[in-house]
Design a protein that fits this description.
Helix 8 runs parallel beside helix 10. By secondary structure, this protein is an alpha/beta fold. It is globular. It has a single domain, classed as Aldolase class I (TIM Barrel). Helices cover 41% and strands 13% of the residues. The strands form two sheets. It has a six-stranded parallel β-sheet, covered by helices on one side. A three-stranded antiparallel β-sheet has the order 7-8-9, with no helix packed on it. It binds iron/sulfur cluster (SF4). The site of iron/sulfur cluster has 10 residues, from helix 12. The site of iron/sulfur cluster (SF4) has 10 residues, from helix 12.
Length: 280
């Protein structure tokens, strides 16, 4: 973190295929970030925020107190993965029969804390995040509406052809389902008098990515990926032991390669150009 601060890093994001909040050091990491003036954004499936058994086992406190502790770090924000408001769909997508209940409780607990208020910079400190699939295409607009009603952040991503998406058949929505989703989102936007194209609410990985130029992704074992959308097995930049300065030089080379050789690919951000065209 000290090295990151000296390089000008402003925020740490805890995200990825693993549930970072299950790490017993998680609260210590938030504390260390806070001390250094770093903002943190945690993407979570809601586990210790909404399940007393998990919070007790790892942190020795209730889920409500765990959420309060996270909220007590003024620079922390939390985004809970929520794919559907329907119990069966959510549990199926999370492959966890307790998922919907956990998410509901996590939202209730967050509501009792400062996470529910805007943060230092006026931006929301709490939000939800969905991945659009053939199972939840009818529900995404309702989650978006819930976020607008409560002034929460909302992130919705299309499926990337990596990880679980490549293993599970029929998970990707067909174009008719995407159209239905966008129509419903448009309706929500109109009801809030927001003059935005609905396509802007879903990340289709189809435009210039401002994040790609600004971060590196550290896996739990210290290996480095160019960003979260690159698969672990084929896109390692190095190891965190090399130091962030060296790693950022490597990443910078990759960024310039992308703009030199790949920006002719229409409608694909770097991770899609990598996954579908094997160009970087
Ligand atoms: S390149 Fe793709 S996966 Fe990487 S940060 Fe951008 S949108 Fe996300």
């Amino acid at each position: 973190m000290d090295e990151a601060v000296s390089l000008g890093v402003k925020s740490l994001w805890f995200l990825g295929a693993h549930e970072n909040t299950l790490n017993p050091n998680y609260l210590r990491l938030l504390e260390a970030a806070e001390k250094r003036g770093l903002f943190t954004v945690t993407f979570s499936n809601g586990a210790p925020f909404g399940d007393d058994v998990i919070a007790k086992k790892i942190f020795g406190m209730s889920a409500e107190n765990f959420t309060k502790t996270v909220a007590s770090f003024s620079r922390s924000s939390v985004i809970i993965k929520c794919d559907s408001l329907k119990l069966e769909t959510q549990n199926l997508l999370a492959r966890n029969k307790n998922a919907r209940q956990q998410i509901k409780k996590a939202i209730q607990n967050a509501k009792k804390t400062e996470l529910w208020s805007p943060g230092i910079n006026g931006l929301p400190r709490f939000g939800l995040n969905s991945v659009l699939t053939s199972h939840n295409y009818g529900d995404v607009a309702n989650i978006f509406q819930f976020c607008l009603e409560n002034k929460l952040a909302y992130f919705c991503d299309a499926l990337l052809s990596s990880g679980a998406a490549t293993k599970e058949e029929n998970l990707a929505p067909i174009s008719k389902q995407v159209k239905i989703t966008l129509k419903k989102i448009k309706h929500v936007l109109q009801s809030f008098e927001m003059d935005l194209p609905p396509e802007m609410v879903v990340n289709f990985y189809d435009q210039k990515c401002i994040l790609f130029d600004n971060y590196i992704f550290i896996i739990h074992d210290g290996r480095i990926l160019p960003c979260a959308g690159f698969p672990e097995n084929s896109s390692i930049l190095g190891h965190v032991n090399e130091g962030l300065t060296v790693l950022w030089e490597k990443k910078s080379k990759m960024i310039s390669t992308y703009y030199k050789h790949c920006s002719f690919i229409p409608n694909k951000c770097p991770c899609r150009a990598h996954l579908e065209n094997h160009l970087i």
